[in-house]
Amino acid sequence: MLWSKKVQPAQEGASRAESCRLDAEALYRSGSHHCAEAVMESVRLHFTPEIPESVTGSVSGFGGGSGSGCICGAVSGGTVALGMVLQDKKRTTKLTRDLHGWFREKYGVTCCKIIRANNPKGVCPVLTGEVAGKIAEMLEQK
Questions:
Q1: Contact present, 33 and 75 (Cβ < 8 Å)
Q2: At 5, is the secondary structure helix, strand, or coil?
Q3: Cα–Cα distance for residue pair 63/37, rounded to 1 Å
Q4: Is 108 strand, coil or helix?
């Protein structure tokens, strides 16, 4: 197992998008995952559980805006998660564009430093969940 803390999947009866949102936020808040890892793991669990948990480690460098404060790690991790599920370059590119547009509309920018400076403390767990939920919505429409 890659992470020491496990988070129970979200409540049954919730939509898959809502479950992804809740699970990603819970993973982030648990301290076992940062933004990119939480999005990736939540999407993996709900869409490609046959893929090993260890794949989530492939986005470990994206947390905190790839360590430099640039692009939001939740968005970066989400981009990788889209590719993991879709396995289709054209669709992944289109949905990545859609994800970035949605995120910019919601937060004004995709830059981690600016988001953290312009939003209340503690915004990261919430936006991590929102990104995972949005990706699940997008994937369910495919």
A1: no
A2: coil
A3: 8
A4: coil
Q: How far apart are CA 137 and CA 142, in angstroms?
A: 9
Handedness of CA 80, 44, 133, 59 (dihedral sign): negative
Positions in the chain whose pLDDT score sits under 70: 1-13, 142
Measured distance CA(71)–CA(63) in Å, rounded: 9
| Side-chain-side CA neighbours of residue 130 (13 Å) | 13
Among the listed residues 65, 67, 4, 61, the one whose alpha carbon sits nearest the alpha carbon of residue 32: 4
Torsion, CA 40, CA 45, CA 50, CA 56, rounded to 10: 30
Task: Identify the residue whose tokens are 């404060």.
Answer: 69
For residue 8, the model assigns a pLDDT of 46
pTM higher than 0.70 for the full model?
yes
Q: Cβ(48)–Cβ(85) under 8 Å?
A: yes
